[in-house]
TrEMBL record:
<comment type="similarity">
    <text>Belongs to the dTDP-4-dehydrorhamnose 3,5-epimerase family.</text>
</comment>
<dbReference type="InterPro" id="IPR014710">
    <property type="entry name" value="RmlC-like_jellyroll"/>
</dbReference>
<keyword id="KW-0413">Isomerase</keyword>
<dbReference type="Pfam" id="PF00908">
    <property type="entry name" value="dTDP_sugar_isom"/>
</dbReference>
<dbReference type="InterPro" id="IPR000888">
    <property type="entry name" value="RmlC-like"/>
</dbReference>
<protein>
    <submittedName>
        <fullName>dTDP-4-dehydrorhamnose 3,5-epimerase</fullName>
    </submittedName>
</protein>
<dbReference type="InterPro" id="IPR011051">
    <property type="entry name" value="RmlC_Cupin_sf"/>
</dbReference>
């Protein structure tokens, strides 16, 4: 497994496994504490694992947490997703930077999203399972959602939106979220 820094988002990384494939399929390590530690992250900081299943065209996000934020490891374990990270850390050298990825069950690449960054994705396949490993217990009172179609962000979602939560559908613009946070 190797770690690659994401140029567009300071402190974000892609963790790329080295799958062993044969006639049975493949095997790969999807988390390695030593590799995580090698880029300055505490592998023991992650306290909760979650999994979402989405149908083709489902859009989830853009989400982040208020307060201390939430760092996460995101991996598409089955299918394919179009994944988005937006840097909303005012002191970051990549503030308002955006990065787009295709994560898939074929590659099992894991994306590290630093605390203070918004995250969202859209399922590209009929079924897409997405795994999350977060660094603090979820508290719904700290949930922040930003409009997926905010023109300021101009995210090139690849498919028409088939479905999304009411919270995501009614999300405010980035400007409104930043105003509410006093920025």
């Amino acid at each position: 497994m190797k770690a690659t820094e994401v140029r567009e988002i300071a402190g974000a990384y892609l963790f790329e496994p080295a799958p062993y494939a044969d006639e049975r399929g493949f095997f790969c390590r999807t988390f390695d504490a030593d590799v995580v530690r090698s880029v300055g992250l505490d592998p023991h900081a992650f306290v909760q694992d979650s999994l979402s299943r989405s149908a083709r065209g489902v859009l989830r996000g853009l989400h982040l947490r208020s307060g201390a934020g939430e760092a996460k490891l995101v991996r598409c374990s089955y299918g394919r997703i179009f994944d988005v990270v937006v840097d909303l850390r005012p002191d970051s050298p990549t503030y308002l930077g955006r990065a787009f990825f295709e994560l898939s069950g074929e590659t099992q690449v894991t994306l590290y999203v630093p605390a203070g960054c918004a995250h969202g994705f859209q399922a590209l396949t009929e079924t897409a399972d997405t795994s999350y490993r977060i660094d603090r217990p979820h508290d719904p009172a700290e949930d922040v959602t930003i409009a997926f179609d905010d023109p300021e962000l101009a995210i090139p979602w690849p498919l028409p939106v088939a479905s999304m939560s009411q919270r995501d559908r009614e999300a405010p613009s980035l400007a409104e979220v930043l105003k509410r946070q006093g920025r």
